[in-house]
Amino acid sequence: MQFLAPLLLAGTVLATAPIIIHLLNRRRFIRVNWAPMEYLKLTLKTNKRRLRLEQWLLLAIRTLAVLALFFAVARPISSGTNLAGFLSVEGRASRVIVIDDSLSMSYQNGEQPAFERAKNAARQVLNQLGPQDSVSVVLASNPAQTLVRTAHLEENERNKLIARINELSNCQMASHWISTLEDIDRQLQEATFPVKEVIIVTDLWAAGWTVEVRDLFDRWSQEQVTVRFIDIGENPAGNRVLHSLELDSRIALVDQEVKLTAVIENAGEEPLKYGQALLTVDGNVTPVTLPEIPADKTVEVPVTVRFDQAGQHVVTLSIPADKLLADNIQRKIINVRQLVDVVLVDGEPGLNPFDSETDFLALALSAGNSNWQVTQSESSTWKTQLLTAPDLIVLANVDQLSKERVKELEELVSLGTGLMIFAGDQCDLELYNERLFKGGKGLLPARIHQIRDLSSQGLVIEPIADSPIEMLKGLTPELLSRVRPRRFADVTLDPNSDQQQVRVLARWNDAQQSPAVLEKRFGEGRVMFWTITADKSWSDWPAEASFVLAMRVAAQEIAAEIQRGENLTAGEPIHYELETITAPQSGELLWLDQESSPLEITFGTINETKTMLSSAPIRFAGVVEATWKDTQLGDQTQKFAINANVEDSLQKKLDEQALQQFLGRMPLKLIRYQGKEMDLSTEGTELWRYLAVLLLGCLISESMLATWIGRRR
Q: How far apart, in whole angstroms, are the C-alpha atoms of residue 13 and residue 191?
């Protein structure tokens, strides 16, 4: 037995107090010979033994109460006498040693990170195992790929394995214990010996532990599988997490400000007072002053960058260092465009300037904006042309569309192309509902009921998160009140529609609060339906300055986003489509921000024109560049950013009671690692609860017995 607070055992000397008091009380009496006492002696002689027994029993209970008190505060732990005793089993055993290498294992509160402590603990365990046992060693993040599998370790093999363990680095993936243990279960089913044991070396952080593991532990308990935990973790104290770094807009353009938002959490007990982050853009570092972040709060920090050329750019943001460095940095691959390709389909062309349906739209999108390439096309011509894949298609008062053209639009939008639809007198409402709405399954967000007159005193912007026209909420009520339609397309919303797919972004300021702008998410793309025309036939809004802002903001938010899987989280594989007919034969992933071995990539044919570049799950955070040779285009490269999985940053450690809830009927066997050498006698559970019950029993017994002895006789 060992004690977590052995110095408090010094208080056990107070257990002699009842004995000393008893002896002193005996000395207080003076013996006097008195004749009548001779007669009393005869009476007391028969009760002498019973009285002495009662006194000694009361003395023993009081002494035991004092001992129980100080033993309890010294926190005794039931354990074996050494590490070998902790690992001992009856007969030859098949053992699986699991080393937790998740993101939280890089937490460093002392001289060593938790993962270094785990490697030291694993080394000591291996040194205690004999060659007669079968041993497998795995990492929790990748249990299928063992360091050694069902091996009988002689001294040379053990030394080689320990050397390999010492070279390991923990990954930046999150813990997921159910998948890890399920893989361990498959290995146990192939075990040679009937005695099976799993040794888990972990920091016991709560992240990754879910109730699904209980059924597995219950089955292991029935199958007589032994599970032992080696706790190498310390109680976490304070952490700052950079959760994400996201683009505020779907499009980044050359020579324009690109806005990003960083989400930072201060999980510590002290506020972060105006720290300084570092923003790195293609290797150029710029300091960023952070606002004060109160303790246990999360804030959003705006970040602005600008790019002078198109292509892939690497943006990295790192916040001030703390005890867990892996979650203090976020990387982002941003595809910067030279221009945005927009096609305006005009359903009512005119002869004079601003007589056509799309003239005001073309002016709003292109005036003073060299990054937007706007093409106006008459609907009669566009319907017969081969459909290209621009970033944004606008249908303005187009009378009708063939089923084939609608199907082509659905394919483009589902892949990410943005689509705007403006109502108008030319629209065939019946065909729109039949081919574009399709009972709620088509591109149109709502069924068009009718075209009717409207008397409205303005436009009301709905408070919806990530709305494409959210910026219009910043306009003054006076500007929005000048948007007064005379006619509009009255729509009928499906009450059963998915609110995440169909949303009303703005309403007319009339008695019915009629929808003015609706949005529908369709695959990877977004569709916006404006219930007025794009020209001045139904309102004078196209002549207002707010119309220019509304069209530019909306177009930029729903235009096609270049997102082909360049930004990943540790633990995810790369899947990247290549526009090539012949699949490359070979390629590799090279780390750009660290010295690590290249990773392998493979190529598989999707169809006649596309090839998929793939990799195994990438376990570490960083920036990698895929290189390969295309038979037609020559040498090709593509960058990818892998960020740490910050789900493992949850700073909560499981105590014995919480861990036992996950174990179900499996008894808890735990040893704590507290330094460079294993604390050899800390297996099992603390006994202070049992001693507290004993102390309470002693106090109750003492009170009752003292009352019984002191009664009048």
A: 53
Kindly state the average pLDDT of the residues 2-17: 60
- Taking each helix axis as running N to C, give the angle between helix 17-27 and helix 48-73, from 0 to 180 degrees, rounded to the nearest 10: 150
Contact 136, 148 (CB under 8 A): yes
Which 3 state secondary structure label does DSSP give 301? strand
Please tell me the predicted confidence (pLDDT) of residue 511: 87
* In the chain, % of residues over pLDDT 70: 86
Task: Give the per-residue pLDDT at 58.
Answer: 75
The listed range with the strongest mean pLDDT (30-34, 89-93, 103-107) is: 103-107
- Res. 7 pLDDT band, cuts 50 70 90: low
Query: How far is the C-alpha of 561 from the C-alpha of 116, rounded, in Å?
Result: 43
Residue 292 neighbours by CB under 8 Å, 6+ apart? 271, 272, 273, 274
CATH number for the 240-334 domain, one of 3.40.50.300, 3.40.190.10, 3.50.50.60, 2.60.40.10?
A: 2.60.40.10
Which residues are CB-contacts of 196 (< 8 A; sequence separation ≥ 6)? 93, 94, 95, 188, 223, 224, 225, 226
State whether the Cα torsion 305-309-311-312 is positive or negative: negative
What six digits make up the tokens of 307? 């790019």
The structure's pTM equals 0.74
Over residues 274-317, the pLDDT tens digits come to 788 999 999 999 999 999 999 889 999 999 999 999 999 999 99
Element (DSSP H or E) covering residue 453: strand 447-453
Spatial distance between the Cα atoms of 593 and 416, rounded to a whole number of angstroms = 31
For the stretch 631-638, contacts whose Cβ atoms lie closer than 8 Å and that sit 24 or more positions apart, written own/partner, are 631/580, 631/582, 631/584, 632/580, 632/581, 632/582, 633/580, 636/578, 636/584, 638/312, 638/566, 638/576, 638/613
CATH of 567-643 among 2.60.120, 1.20.1250, 2.60.40, 1.10.238? 2.60.40
List all residues 6 or more positions away from 550 whose beta carbon is below 8 Å from its beta carbon: 469, 472
Q: Cα(550)–Cα(539) distance, rounded to whole angstroms?
A: 15
pLDDT in tens, 227-248: 999 999 888 877 899 999 999 8
- pLDDT at residue 24, as a whole number: 62
Q: What is the DSSP string of 58-86?
A: HHHHHHHHHHHHHHHHT-EE---SSHHHH
d(CA 213, CA 182): 9
> Going by C-beta distance under 8 Å and a sequence separation of 6 or more, which residues neighbour residue 184?
96, 98, 138, 143, 198
Domain 83-234+652-672 has CATH 3.30.1330.10: no
What integer pLDDT is reported at residue 681 of this predicted model?
39
DSSP character at residue 318: E
Here the tokens at position 200 are 């888990």
Reported as a pLDDT band with limits 50, 70 and 90, residue 612 is confident
Considering only CA atoms, which of 234, 11, 294, 241 is closest in space to residue 109? 234
Residue with tokens 């062309």: 349
Looking up tokens 């574009």, which residue turns up? 436
Task: Name every residue whose Cβ is closer than 8 Å to that of residue 527 and which is 6 or more positions away in sequence.
Answer: 413, 418, 419, 420, 421, 443, 444, 445, 519, 520, 521, 558
Same topology for domains 240-334 and 567-643, yes or no?
yes
Half-sphere exposure of 634 (CA within 13 A, CB side): 0
Mean pLDDT of the 255-281 span? 90
